[in-house]
Structure formats: C-alpha cells, structure tokens
Amino acid sequence: MAPLLQVSDLHVAVDDAEILRGIDLEVGDGALHALMGPNGSGKSTLAQTLLGNPVYRVTAGTIRLRGEDVTTWPTDVRAKAGMFLAFQYPEEISGVSVTQFLRQAMSARAGEERSALEVRMSMMEWMERLGMDPAFAERYLNEGFSGGEKKRNEILQMALLQPDLAVLDETDSGLDVDALKVVADGVQTVRRSRPGLGVLLVTHYTRILELLTPDAVHVMVGGRLVESGGSELAERLEQQGYEAWRR
Prior knowledge:
The protein is of the alpha/beta class. The protein is built from 8 helices and 12 strands. It has a domain at 5-90 and 163-246: P-loop containing nucleotide triphosphate hydrolases (Rossmann fold, 3-Layer(aba) Sandwich), CATH 3.40.50.300. The protein is 36% helix and 29% strand. The strands form 3 sheets. The chain has a 6-stranded mixed sheet, sandwiched between helices. It has a 4-stranded antiparallel sheet with strand order 2-1-4-5, covered by helices on one side.
C-alpha cells in the first residue's frame, strides 16, 4: 500500500533561486512527523509547495498523495483531495465571518453545498470540544484575533474539513506557554477523532514536541533533510542546536 504522503527527490525554486535540493519524505496514515530546522532552511517552502502555492516552482521530483501524483495539481484540487495547510501567519479577511468562510470551505471539500444549519451545528460541536467561545463564529476571519486565537481557528478548520493530511506550518510560532498547550490539545483532539490523519508539523522549537510526541523527527538545513530519527533527535537538537548539522 502506498504511503499517505510520499515526496521524492523534490527540488523547488523561487524565481531563479533553488530553495529545496532533493527532499525525500514519507508520512503514513495516523503518523505525526516533525520537521525542524533553523530560519531559512526551507521548511515553510516545503509546506507551501505541498499545498501547491504557485510562487514555489517544482523543478524536479514528485509529490504523491496515496500513490497519486499531485505535483501539478492546483491548491483547491489538493485541498478537495484531503490536504490541509495551517498557515504560520493566517490572513485577516474583513467582512467575512468565520462561519461564512467555513461554510464555503466545507462545501468545496465535500463537492456539494453545505447548509448554514449543518455547518453551524458542526462548528458549535467542535468549538465546545476545543474550548472556544461560541461568539467566535460571528467574528470576521482573523480580524483582531490574538496569535493564539488565530492558531485555534486553524485547528477548528482542520477539524471541520476532515483532511487526510495536515501540514501545520509553525503552528507554535509566537505562542505563550498557555496558548501552546491549548493548540497542542486541539491537535490531539482532532487526531483522536480521525485516527488515520497524517500530520507534518513544521517547527523551530522542541517545546511543542513535549506536548505532541512525534513518530519521526526530520532535520532540514540548507534545503536538504540532513537527518531523520525518533523523538530522541529532538532532544539532541534541544541540547546541541543546529550548529553540528550546519557544519
């Protein structure tokens, strides 16, 4: 059986600058993989490329979802097929409520119109499970949200869209200890509700991995995966930093 996600010899450029230099990566059903590396190592480039951001140009290699080559698929088709990206810096959309946005997204994912009542009932159920204020649903998307609220909104989207693969691009960025725990608990709640969900967690720091134990850890430096291992690799990074891999 083909892995959920299979990235093979992936090379990616922005304009004329090569960013990723031959990435090989597999994520299986239900697995949580952590991708770590210093600033500028290419982590977010990989996340954006997986979801088809046209700014990032694949010059060689393939991206496969359950064995199907999705390398040239546009973002909306990948999302409908079950891929999800939680952004490092979610955009604000004035005039569009969280409910309106999620109704459109859920309808697109399902391939058919979802009623306002159906969406609202699902939202209320998940907001209760994630410990979110119901009034949150009527606020404009990310407008005036704190960093923690933005990230919790991304987790809410993940829960409602029911992806097969979730790419979480620095979901822990800018969060204090309390907000980090809330977000990590939310990720775990969604994973328990969808046991086959594969997660690629992109992060600089090991602190979220104390709350979300990864099945595998990958270190990226200079656009390459330079080492992979278990959770003990994250512990080495905490003690040694990235300098050994830079050399």
